[in-house]
Predict the 3D structure of the following.
Amino acid sequence: MIRKIIHIDMDAFYASVEQRDHPELRGKPVAVGGNSRRGVLATASYEARKYGVKSAMPTSMALSLCPDLIVIQSNGKAYQEASQVIRSIFYEYTDWVEPLSLDEAFLDVTFCDVAGRSATLIAAEIKKRIKEETALTASAGVSYNKFLAKVASDYKKPDGLFVIPPENALAFLEELPIGKFFGVGKVSAQRFSTMGVKNGKDLKALSRENLVSCFGKAGAYYYDIVRGIDNREVIPFRESKSFGAECTFETDIFEVTDIESRFVAIAERAWRRVNKQNVEGRTITIKIKFYDFEIFSRSKTFDHFIEDKEMFIFEAVQLLQKEYPLQKKVRLLGVTLSNFNEESLEPVQSILKF
Ligand code: DCP
Ligand code: MG
């Protein structure tokens, strides 16, 4: 059976979060410094990339390429938060989500029954949802295996959506520069270059034996992928013990009626996610982020499971109302359900095995 795989990767992730949260940085060359490897950049905004600035580059080199570069310290919490939001969007479409890092994941949507089952439309929808809920852009790649989906998501960055249908895959791979083959690291790329291998077509001309003798196990992988063969499954990995939804508003809101109607819409979305997972939870948590980024959250744990949407929304609104009158304009509202019956989490995984 032909699978439908989507790879989603956020654009200039850390830098985009910073530009979102600090409007004065928008449209400017911005780089985020890495925390652990001091002196090396974690990433750079697309404005900075025009100057050749990129991740893992020493800050001093980046500044000599782009003297106007604004270098800021990374703020892990904001990235974690955005990552959680995108993951909960993914889980709405499939249980088969394999996160590779905070900002990217593979999704197997072969059995996803929305958008007429078109993986392309699902990818477009996910991109739109990410934009609405995080005010950030993502790029998506769609194809029939992980390798091609990953290559596709990179192909039209930023804010891209690129599809490689089975009938186009081989021609596409022949044209693809060797450095763009996912899995070909710097060292291998160098080696390929000395062998005169510039693109997929050149790679395809090499025998399996030859590739294995040059690159070991990776050689067999290269032999397969250039032929569009990659049978690796999307391995679901779930760490989230809560399901919910949140929304960052385009402009901050203050009117109670406005706040409540938006909150109810968010709670409805949160409930759809809970329902989709077939889980029973007892704790409702609401989150309010104010215009000045102060975050407030309040939880309530019940002695019974929240049984239906009406109960969920009613209780969530009650929690929100406890905070009235709100003192400041609101930038984001969110609500989650957690504290699940552990057993209710299990069947979801097994039912959906291939
Ligand atoms: N990152 C890091 N150090 C690296 C590479 C990445 O700390 N050497 C962090 C910062 C990135 C995030 O991980 O924002 C995601 O990595 P990506 O490779 O997806 O790069 P970006 O999302 O920044 O840019 P792109 O638009 O190319 O995906
Ligand atoms: Mg990225």
Remarks:
- Confidence is low (pLDDT under 50) at residues 346-354.
- Residues 9-10, 13, 103-104 surround magnesium ion (ligand 2) (CB under 6 Å).
- The two ends are 11 Å apart (CA to CA).
- Residues 36 and 57 are 14 Å apart (CA to CA).
